[in-house]
Amino acid sequence: MSVPDAGTPTLRPWIYSPMRHDPLSYLGDELRLLKEQNLYRRLRVLDDEQKAHTSFDGRSVVNLSSNNYLGLTTHPRLRQKALEAIQAFGVGSGSVRSIAGTMAIHLELERRLAEFKRVEAVVVFQSGFTANAGTVAAILTKEDVVISDELNHASIIDGCRLSRATVKVFPHKDVDAARAIIASLPATGRKLLITDGVFSMDGDLGPLPDLCTLAEETGCIMMVDDAHASGVFGTQGRGTVDHFGVHGRVDVQVGTLSKAIGALGGYVAGSRDLIEFLYHRARPFLFSTSHPPAVAAACIAALDVLSEEPDIMERLWENTRLFKAGLADLGFNTGISESPITPVIVGDGAMAMKLSDRLFEEGVFAQGIAYPTVARDRARVRTIVTATHTAGELRFALDRFGAVGKELGLV
After folding, report:
1. What is residue 6's predicted lDDT score, i.e. its pLDDT?
2. What are the catalytic residues?
3. What are the angstrom distances between the C-alpha of 391 and each of 61, 326, 359, 411?
4. Domain 39-69+310-407 has CATH 3.90.1150.10
5. What is the 3-state secondary structure (H, E, C) of the chain?
6. What whole-number distance in Å separates Cα of residue 336 and Cα of residue 203?
7. How far apart are CA 294 and CA 86, in angstroms?
8. How far is CA 153 from CA 92, 194, 373, in A?
9. Residue 10 pLDDT > 80, yes or no?
10. Cis status of the peptide bond prior to 207, with omega within 30 of 0
């Protein structure tokens, strides 16, 4: 049998023909429009470790754009456990969970997470996004109704669409409005009341106690996306359910392993029946290869760190208070943040991008965010401090915010 020459790729002339009509040419027009509006962004490339002071695009910067809240991406205990798992089990799992891809280390991670979240059971997904979208789509049908906060994460919105359920949106954190929506619905039929625990753009907390009461009074399924709260709020980082003391009142908890936990993935926590059902019906679980063993091992190590090194969370909150106070003293609008996520709201999208670009030139990486991620008049630079920032790094960043803010007429 003859073997093709591997050094000479076979070209298909029709792919490269300048005469061929490009059915995707409209995308170029959309990109040009973004550039005209000063909203076009290219990807920043990380040259080093994901840490508080690192290098992007060859420039040394204080990193205020990472979800690595506790600095666990580079923690020695996580590195060591990941390396040990690679040596013991290899680099991949080789299958989806429902066929041959469930390893003992996956079950151990889920057992540890259930203990951590104080629930009956947990199932791990490939990401926080698939955990949200896969769960909502699995537990609801087109006959059901979702009552959702207007600022809930995109993964919740996509999950609602996939479920084909009717979606009713209430104004941000307006429990009375949610109550009025539920009162207008037929008494029969399943209803899901859902909120973020920490809202990712404004950094404020969902009104969990009042929403739990509303769900109990009206028979709704109560669901919380706690992605930005895991490792940040509650005892040893157990999240907003623990922070507000509503254990046993939230039917579905979604968390992430990609932010404060420092690795990759998401999870759903709840009753044993919920988790067993997701084993059978959640499409991301059924049709995506399971986590590499090194990732599962690193996540287990992160749970050990949370329980045994409480000073990490204390440092996170010390840094959060320092930075928030500094931005307020400079005169920036930081909105209603209650978390390490602190937006610097400037309103205009182009101005937010200009502020972000100038800060980067001055040695501070704080990502600009504009429509459609946030409302057109609520563009901002979003900052996130971590436990591993030094006070000196944060003061340097504040100094640069002050200088650039004055230059652009923002303060």
Report:
1. 54
2. 200, 228, 259
3. 15, 11, 18, 23
4. yes
5. CCCCCCCCCCCCHHHHCCCCCCCCHHHHHHHHHHHHCCCCCCCCCECCCCCCEEEECCEEEEECCCCCCCCHHHCHHHHHHHHHHHHHHCCCCCCECCCCCCCHHHHHHHHHHHHHHCCCEEEEECCHHHHHHHHHHHHCCCCCEEEEECCCCHHHHHHHHHHCCEEEEECCCCHHHHHHHHHCCCCCCCEEEEEECECCCCCCECCHHHHHHHHHHHCCEEEEECCCCCCCCCHHHCCHHHHCCCCCCCCEEEEECCCCCCCCCEEEEECHHHHHHHHHHCHHHHHCECCCHHHHHHHHHHHHHHHHCCHHHHHHHHHHHHHHHHHHHHCCCCCCCCCCEEEEEEECHHHHHHHHHHHHHCCEECCEECCCCCCHHHEEEEEECCCCCCHHHHHHHHHHHHHHHHHCCCC
6. 7
7. 6
8. 30, 10, 10
9. no
10. no
Give the model's pLDDT for residue 148.
96
56 strand-pairing partners: 46, 59
Tell me, what's the pLDDT at 1? Answer: 47
Residue 133: φ, ψ to 5°? -65, -45
pLDDT digits (tens, 9 = 90+) for 256-293: 999 999 999 999 999 999 999 999 999 999 999 999 99
For the chain, the structural domain boundaries read 39-69+310-407, 74-308
For the entire predicted model, the pTM comes to 0.91
CATH of 74-308, one of 1.10.240.10, 3.40.1360.10, 3.40.50.720, 3.40.640.10: 3.40.640.10
